[in-house]
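ok so I'm stuck.
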Amino acid sequence: MWVKASLRSWRIVSPLLLLLLMAGGCSRIPKIIVLEDPLTAAEHVDLGVAYERKGELDLARREYERALQKDRKFHRARLNLGNIFLAKKEYGKAREEYLLALELRPGDAEATNNLSWAAIFSGEGIDEALGRMESVVSGPGNRRPPLLDTLGVLRMRANRPGPAEEAFALAETLCRQAGAAPREGWKEGEPCPNEVLREIEEHRRELRRRFP
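replied:
not stuck anymore, here's the structure
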């Protein structure tokens, strides 16, 4: 169900502005409409997610930016805005948003993972991203296939084929042990989505092509 953002609030012209208009000789005094946003920051994020799922990235961006206007410390809005920039291949802007998200939640696995992909796609900041990712994966509960896969790609880009293969192999093992069943938002030990397993296998093949 779509959220309809109807902006209905207004205020009539102030007494001071009324005097100014009369002094200027205006024969007709207009009503001054001041629009007020009735949605909360969380509601703007929900609306942005709905737009994003439909592929309407510019509208989604607008909603995330409106959420941040209401709450500059809204981590999800900041992270989602970074994802929009990443999807639009604006990697510098994506990096800025992910770093701001990490200021709000240092060591956040999702922000660190997505920051890593901004580095991978742009080819810039690989070493920094690798350091952050190594730290995250070593943390409790973060030995998860998609994070290990990202770590492997970073190591591969940093010309470290041996450690990259170790990360890919562990990611694939954990994925197969859990059972490749489609499920979102899983934790360590839970079923691994099929698309994650396919990506891991593809990255392992890429590693072997790069470093035969």
